[in-house]
Design brief:
By secondary structure, this protein is mostly helical. It is built from 3 helices and 2 strands; from the N terminus they run E-E-H-H-H. The protein has a two-stranded antiparallel sheet. Helix 1 crosses helix 2 and helix 2 packs antiparallel against helix 3. The relative contact order is 0.09.
Length: about 180
């Protein structure tokens, strides 16, 4: 995208070397999501991120339902392959946060690369760049579904963490007894 150069104008207040923007030129300042580019609007919050791990409550439930419909009606019937110890799949995959994150990213990419306005090579790029890496990670015997099999979900315990915020401020001292 190109922009028209700013015009130099002379006014009694500014002098000969002050630039004024060409009002017909597109604004190339970054959009912060908080109003017109380059403006600060502290009373308006930016739109929430599209990634499911940032969602909560009804927004998360709605997004998970949409992801589930796509996973159960598009992804698994076409790309699911039979579950085995070498290719595990969990019948309650939505109980695995890593699987939800991977599948959501896969679904978002699907929408961008196969939907209206996508390039003719979009589906091929989706397979190569998104489907195969995500399914390989999910179906890996050591992946998020390790120990899960048809009819059996095995909850995973995250690794232990000694301190939740080791570089944050120290906790306040306990109250005197």
């Amino acid at each position: 995208m190109t922009t028209a150069p700013a015009e130099k104008t002379e006014t009694p207040d500014t002098g000969p070397d002050t630039e004024t923007p060409d009002t017909d030129a597109p604004d190339t300042r970054p959009d912060t999501g908080a109003g017109p580019p380059g403006t600060a609007t502290p009373d308006k919050e930016p739109p929430p991120p599209a990634f499911i791990l940032y969602m909560q409550g009804p927004a998360y439930a709605h997004e998970l339902r949409q992801l589930t419909l796509w996973t159960h009606h598009v992804l698994l019937p076409v790309y699911g392959r039979e579950a085995s110890s070498g290719l595990p799949w969990c019948p309650v995959w939505w109980e695995h946060p890593e699987a939800v994150a991977q599948l959501h990213g896969l679904w978002l990419a699907w929408g961008d690369l196969t939907g209206p306005g996508s390039p003719p090579t979009g589906p091929a790029m989706w397979h190569r760049d998104y489907l195969f890496p995500a399914m390989s990670a999910l179906r890996d015997p050591q992946g998020p579904f390790a120990g899960c099999k048809p009819g059996m979900h095995r909850p995973k315990t995250p690794p232990p963490i000694d301190t939740l915020d080791p570089f944050g401020p120290p906790p306040p001292p306990p109250p005197p007894a």
